[in-house]
Amino acid sequence: MVNAHAPVFPDGFLWGASTAAHQVEGNNVGSDFWQAENHGTGDLADRSGDACDSYHRWPEDLDIVRDLGLNAYRFSIEWARVVPAPGHPSRAMLDHYRRMIEGCAERGLTPVVTLHHFTSPAWLRAEGGWTSEAAISHFTAYVRAVLPILDGVPWVCTINEPNMVAMMVTRRANGMGHADPSFVTPDPGMTAALSRAHAEARELLASVPGLRSGWTVANQNVQDHGAGPDRTAEMSYLIDDQYLDVAKGDDFVGVQAYSRLRAGRQGVIAPGPADRRTMIGWEYYPLGLEDAVRHTAARLGGSTPLLVTENGIATGDDGERIEYTREALTGLARAMADGVDVRGYLHWSLLDNYEWGSWEPTFGLVAVDRTTFRRTVKPSARWLGQLTQSPAAALGQGGAA
Ligand code: BGC
Q1: Which of the listed residues 259, 356, 362, 365 should we mutate to test ligand 1's pocket, taking the one with most ligand atoms within 8 A of CB?
Q2: Which domain range does residue 363 map to?
Q3: Residue 180 to residues 51, 61, 294: CA-CA distances in angstroms?
Q4: Residue 392: inside a domain, yes or no?
């Protein structure tokens, strides 16, 4: 029974923004993605280069988050920096990330820390990658190295979007581009490796008092648009639900939602000219967040708390970002009023950052000058910061108590 008088967004709800190391830090030279950008097949339009120089400018980024009135920041630790050579973790890099964690605390921000956000050390790829014999022990050695700096971190995401990582393997194997809308089955070997890495990491992380760990799933929101219930359920299982099932019993699960996937009679119905689309080509579908949290809670049986670790829109029109986010949060409030246990909302992204091969799609609440690295806070950032002061009022009926 829902308590009609309880505020939908409870005290302590996390309101923040997210980033990932490779997309903002710059010069992540030891990572596999850097290798692909600079020594790969040449199919990536842009290189990350200096990115947003957040490796040096993270204090400024944290100041912005605090000054907006947000209370949380999600960022990732870069495995390739912490372990530049297998067996030889870098003390200086661990100190760097520890300073970031302390920097959050000094500003009253809750850190949400991701251990693996798409990139791995180039040396791991050279050794055969994630499905090689030693990959899991390499990953657990990395997790062991970071354990001492995680003191005081309440939320740790082990692996970001394992489903997307495993789908990427299939795409690569079939020479399919990043934006190809066809349905792809995630690589089973990669799925098994990441699931094992996640479980072993969680076991190690359990030794840190007060730390909750989970992984984040890119919720695709597979919807039946002619495929029929059986095929829709099968598609949903392959790309979402098998990863949600792994999260059963975890301390939380991260929900990441941007749009939806329409399952048609002939396969995926790609958004066409008649559909409203975002800068990255995805269908404009802000209700995806509400669908995703409801779906995730239903799949997990309601026992695992949810944290929205990513939601946002690539757009050059900041007014559209506000429109999208308002609709997404109104839907989130509706789901929470119905009893879905959500502990926070972290917008993707704090900064206009490197979108995995391209600088074009802008997801940021804050613009970054590509030459001077000067940050310019967008109206959407101020709007979100203000909303969080009194969300129920800002969202009207949908967010009201
Ligand atoms: C990823 C981010 C990415 C965002 C937008 C998520 O899949 O975690 O790294 O930038 O979506 O594509």
Answers
A1: 356
A2: 14-387
A3: 25, 33, 27
A4: no
